[in-house]
Amino acid sequence: MNVLIKSATIIDSKSDFHNTTQDILIEKGNISKIAKTIENTNNYKEINLDNLHVSQGWFDSSVCFGEPGFEDRETIANGLKTAAKSGFTTVAMQANTNPIIDTNSAIAFINMKAQNNAVTLLPIGALTKNSESVDLAELYDMSTAGAVAFSDYKKPITNPNLLKIALQYASNFDGLVCSFPQENRISGNGVMNENITSTGLGLKGNPSLAEALQVARDLYLLEYTGGKLHIPTISTTESIDLIRNAKKKKLNVTCSVAIHNLCLTDSELEDFDTHYKVLPPLRTQSDIDALIEGIKDGTIDMVTSDHNPVTIENKKVEFDYADYGTIGLETAFGALQTLFSTKKTVRLLTKGKSRFNVETSTITEGNKADLTLFNPDTKYTFTTKNIHSTSKNSLFLNKDLKGEVYGIIANNKTVL
């Protein structure tokens, strides 16, 4: 693939060309030249777009695509196309398929389905067999097949001894263990944040205590065992405080936050709209303030869209019976830009790569082209016409967002 990008503002703090407007020549998938003006002597395809900005390719540590088993929600092919059009060059796919991805052959299948794509798909293997929190899955075998981490998506490890063994065992091959932060015996049948809003609506609440107890337990186990722990999609003030203190102790722990938990509060549920039924639930403004402070001081290591397609049949039902989840790839950039500057947004969307062993490629001559192309200034109202996913369950529908993604250049391919 040969292409000439014209007049692009480069956003890459590790590049000598950061915050400058340059032409970028890409030949055979590599950046061969960066200069103020480059003549198109070889008649390559030119990319010349309005207010074009370019950054390192974005990374999402938690997406669900359904295939195999739930292709009606999303296929791998369309999921990767959605990721590309949303600006992501690398995504880590969760194991909540049917069957669950808990063997090396299942990892091999995912890798085969994602071959020859502009977006790199990194499979996450299940931590326990069939994600049932009873026996450990084939962690080492999945690791050798290409699994980058191990997680039972949205399912907490109820047995602390099982998590202890997982951390000890995975440390033998530098495996990353993910533990969903919820104590089910406290959350019970709660379907939204336990707060004055849940009381007013008559819906059962899921208290912040359920998350904090599990985070505290997991951090004690990590301190005892060593190893590498990732706590995905935290949502409460208490979790931030616990992880902040753990990092002061130099524990090998990272955490992420779902972008919608940074933007929306539990007051959105006042109309019983199941689009807003997510796990962890939308919390309060004080929780959002603490999460944003955690991002600023580095306690939170990465953000995620937590992209989880759900079919209309599983959303358009009574609130108690609706599935948890929202799609999020298409809105990740635009939602973050309502909270942060463009440079901060790009940093957030490129953080977390090293934790999942993702290669970073600075925008420098000679490096592989792994780029996201976007216009940070476009303002628009997000509607179904902006959705590329097969499922349409977005909690940002009819919300005002900022920033248009043009596409990506990665793996010697262009998607615009």
Can you tell me about this structure?
- The chain is an alpha/beta fold and 416 residues long.
- The protein has 2 domains: 2-53 and 367-379 and 400-415, Urease, subunit C, domain 1 (Roll); 56-356, TIM Barrel.
- 26% of the residues lie in helices and 23% in strands.
- The chain contains 12 helices and 18 strands.
- The chain has helices at residues 76-85, 104-113, 139-145, 160-170, 184-187, 196-201, 208-225, 237-248, 259-263, 285-296, 332-336, 342-350, and strands at 2-11, 21-27, 30-35, 45-47, 53-56, 58-63, 88-93, 120-125, 149-150, 176-178, 192-193, 205-206, 228-231, 253-258, 302-304, 371-381, 400-410, 413-415.
- Helix 2 (104-113) runs parallel beside helix 3, helix 4 crosses helix 7 (208-225) and helix 7 (208-225) packs parallel to helix 8 (237-248).
- The two termini are 14 Å apart.
